[in-house]
Amino acid sequence: MYATDRHASRNSRHGGLEVRPVTKAVRVTLSASASALALSLAVAPMPAQASYPGEPQCVFDPVALTATCNDFFWTDTLTGNELAVDDLTLVIGDAAPSEIDTAYEPGILANWGGDITLDIGNFASVDVDYAPAVEAVVSGDFDATVINDGWVVSRGYEGATGILVRGQDDVSVQNHGLVAGVTYDGGEYAWNSSAVGIDVGVDGGETGGSVSILNDGVVYALGFDDSYYGGYNTSDVTGVRVNTYDAGVAIDNGGVSGVGQIFAVGDDATGIEVDVRGSGAIAITNSGTVDVSAKYDAIGIEAYADESGITIDNLATGRVLVESDDYAEGILAVGKYGTSDVDNAGLVDVSGYDASGIVAVSFEGNAIVTNSGDVLVNGSTGAVGIGGVSVIGNVSITNTSAGDIEVAGGGGDRPVQGITGYTITGYYDGGDVTIVNAGDVLVSADYAAQGVVANAHAKYYGGDSGDITVTNSGRITVSAYGPTEGIFASTGNGAINITNTSTGVIDVTSEYERAVGIEAENDGGEGAGTLAAVAPDMSIRNDGRITVSGQNYVAGIYVDAAIGNVDVVNTRTITATGVEAYVAGIYAAAHAGDISISNTATGTITATSDAVYWDGGEYGYWIGGGADGVLAYAAGDITIDNAGMIDVNGEMSGIGIEARSNGGQITITNQALGHILVDSGMENAVGIEADNSGYYYGPQVTASALENGVPPGGVTIINNGII
Hints:
The chain is an all-beta fold. Helices cover 2% and strands 56% of the residues. Strand 54 (612-614) and strand 55 (621-623) form a beta hairpin. It is elongated and about 100 Å long.
């Protein structure tokens, strides 16, 4: 009874009542593909026919302020405005099949005064062309609640929205049935069509507001166009979209049972998109499925917050599946002032031309990512498994023992990376980067690849770089045709601490290029901060296994410090093998500081380099073949202590321990248990070599320090073992 009559004389577009299979069980367990469903929603007739009275059969309860409508087929907009009742609850199709089939106007329009509650029952079907299927608009400080257990579908040439809600206070949407927005080719005059399953907007104003969305049904946003066939129309689709100002957002896809499904298919597609301006935190939980496929940009879950934090949890049953021919992102959280925190215990599977699994960004807050699930990324060019970025705050990334990160890509424009953490600041001190891997990180690339990357830099003036801490107790496997690194850390003037624990395994392979197990460097910083003269230390410790092979240049551990001291400790195994390469088990350079290197009684360092002869006739020559077990360059003092095994085989030349200083004190000790084996098939084989008269790196020794040609430091070599 409570319906507008503007189109009362219009007949059904189907020529008679056609009833869809609207039982909740059928819809929730729907297993058809997104594309197949889209076609059925666009063109398929309903599977059965019946006759119902021409207008809604509604009963109004004045005490409960509830109007209940059942057993009807209606071809116009259904509203409750005729009752002139504030705080109305409108219930549709909770007891008998009830259908609304209309066009150009919403199927249900809820815009009465006060609080709005709209309950679309299990027997209801709302099918609309060229307008939102369900629209609820609330003015003032009143609440809106929309509950769907039925079938809600909107189709349109240039836009389609299943459920549209606008409010200024609290908004709640629950979908236990099916909601779909489907946009398709509108011909030569249609441009940039959009489709949204659930679309919510709240302007919290002075009093603030909130948005709560629960989906344990099915949400579709589907876009089809003629751009593949030479047309110009493109589709931008979103499964669930929320935009607020001064209103927090909580979204739960899956619910207690974890059966919620969100599908988005179009030229550009996003599964869940949340944008909060002003104040208001974002909390997104996924225990169901978010499945996104696009021709261009595709994002599974995307969240942006101005002043408050972002929390995204992909639970153990959660699946975020993203596929694109171009840019693809699994989970993206971007915060301006608050913390961006992403926790994955489920599956994030992403593939595209340029692909990323999980990325957390905060400009002035912290970026945190924790993974105990599976992150699978495949990018034709660039690919990143997990990334964290902050401008002023800290970055913390943890891959637990249950976590599995697998990344494959081209690596042409930039290296393919398993885990990357990055902080950078301009006029302020930079944040710290902390990365902990206890699980598996597997990275492969056609060109360049890196397992774990940590960067902390300050640019411009007045800022100091943050510190870097990387701990690996899991397995890092990196392979590529080009340059490869297992762990790479770079800072301006911050400290670096890297530990490969007793259970840690780092395997790095390059077919034709440089390969390094652990690499750490600082450049002294570009700012003028307080740390510039403090000279922070760089500390690398290996208690596990590092295996590296490659060409050109190969090192188990490589450290290059523009400022500060360097400390390297090996208690387990470092194996470096190269062809046409210079090879070092441990390489350390301190251009303005001291170096300390220790290979303990349980430590083994093996460096092997094979030379290759380039046959140029009378100008032929050998390439590679040089190897060092330990090589240290320093402007200051060098202390090297060996109580374990150093085994060097350089086809052209081999040196067990080599140390060079610009006038500093060099002390090398081969302890009683120390064993240094050196073999060279062609040229020099040296057990220990030391020189403190200057070297080609770092600041040169001043004339006063070299008065009478005597360096200020000395050279001490003690051998109590075997060379």
